[in-house]
């Protein structure tokens, strides 16, 4: 009699995984990250926020760090390339994009996980590939194009210059507890980035009702 493998006729065990629950859990993790920070985030709290049982979360993610990494991956990067044909206009648009509601939300998540980066290597890697590198890459592309157009001198350190706006925006958020606003982004561009690029500093546009400090 031919042997029939038990696995060939075995039915799947349990209920199929519900993608809507995955989304509810990762959304809850992001909300709690922003509200409480990584260190105070708990799987129990995420489960309660998402309206699911703790076991439902642990069936999907073995640890808090794994859950946060997947939650971070659901955040959409700021869309659209910036290429106006002018360095000044490209940088102005980049400063505006860095202060959009979407960018501010991403910045809030970045600040919420910073305290854990030194002890969570996987979280650090996700932070780097999801948040810091894409921002620096976008600015690097803008500056490389400007150099090819002759707007920047060949000796300008594009890699260093491209890291200034993202790094200083994050630093501001970490030291104040709130995302930096448009006025601060324009101040970085006007008084820090432009001189580093060999361009004259210039006054930034005032934004009366905005509070960065």
UniProtKB/TrEMBL annotation:
<dbReference type="InterPro" id="IPR023772">
    <property type="entry name" value="DNA-bd_HTH_TetR-type_CS"/>
</dbReference>
<dbReference type="Pfam" id="PF00440">
    <property type="entry name" value="TetR_N"/>
</dbReference>
<feature type="domain" description="HTH tetR-type">
    <location>
        <begin position="19"/>
        <end position="79"/>
    </location>
</feature>
<keyword id="KW-0238">DNA-binding</keyword>
<feature type="DNA-binding region" description="H-T-H motif">
    <location>
        <begin position="42"/>
        <end position="61"/>
    </location>
</feature>
<dbReference type="InterPro" id="IPR011075">
    <property type="entry name" value="TetR_C"/>
</dbReference>
<dbReference type="Pfam" id="PF16859">
    <property type="entry name" value="TetR_C_11"/>
</dbReference>
<feature type="compositionally biased region" description="Polar residues">
    <location>
        <begin position="1"/>
        <end position="10"/>
    </location>
</feature>
<dbReference type="InterPro" id="IPR036271">
    <property type="entry name" value="Tet_transcr_reg_TetR-rel_C_sf"/>
</dbReference>
<keyword id="KW-0805">Transcription regulation</keyword>
<dbReference type="InterPro" id="IPR001647">
    <property type="entry name" value="HTH_TetR"/>
</dbReference>
<dbReference type="GO" id="GO:0000976">
    <property type="term" value="F:transcription cis-regulatory region binding"/>
</dbReference>
<protein>
    <submittedName>
        <fullName>TetR/AcrR family transcriptional regulator</fullName>
    </submittedName>
</protein>
<dbReference type="InterPro" id="IPR050109">
    <property type="entry name" value="HTH-type_TetR-like_transc_reg"/>
</dbReference>
<keyword id="KW-0804">Transcription</keyword>
<feature type="region of interest" description="Disordered">
    <location>
        <begin position="1"/>
        <end position="22"/>
    </location>
</feature>
<dbReference type="InterPro" id="IPR009057">
    <property type="entry name" value="Homeodomain-like_sf"/>
</dbReference>
<dbReference type="GO" id="GO:0003700">
    <property type="term" value="F:DNA-binding transcription factor activity"/>
</dbReference>
<feature type="compositionally biased region" description="Basic and acidic residues">
    <location>
        <begin position="12"/>
        <end position="21"/>
    </location>
</feature>
């Amino acid at each position: 009699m031919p042997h029939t493998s038990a696995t060939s006729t075995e039915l799947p065990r349990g209920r199929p995984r519900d993608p809507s629950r995955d989304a509810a859990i990762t959304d809850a993790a992001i909300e709690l990250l922003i509200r409480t920070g990584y260190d105070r985030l708990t799987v129990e709290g995420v489960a309660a926020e998402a309206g699911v049982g703790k076991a439902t979360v642990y069936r999907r993610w073995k640890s808090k760090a794994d859950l946060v990494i997947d939650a971070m991956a659901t955040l959409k990067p700021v869309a659209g390339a910036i290429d106006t044909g002018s360095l000044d206009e490209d940088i102005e648009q980049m400063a505006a994009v860095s202060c959009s509601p979407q960018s501010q939300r991403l910045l809030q998540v970045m600040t919420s996980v910073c305290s854990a980066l030194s002890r969570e290597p996987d979280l650090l890697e996700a932070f780097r590939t999801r948040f810091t590198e894409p921002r620096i890459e976008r600015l690097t592309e803008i500056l490389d194009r400007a150099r090819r157009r002759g707007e920047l001198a060949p000796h300008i350190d594009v890699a260093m210059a491209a890291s200034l706006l993202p790094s200083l925006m994050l630093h501001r958020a970490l030291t104040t507890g709130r995302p930096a606003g448009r006025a601060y982004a324009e101040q970085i561009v006007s008084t820090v980035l432009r001189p580093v690029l060999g361009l004259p500093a210039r006054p930034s546009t005032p934004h009366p009702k905005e509070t960065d400090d």
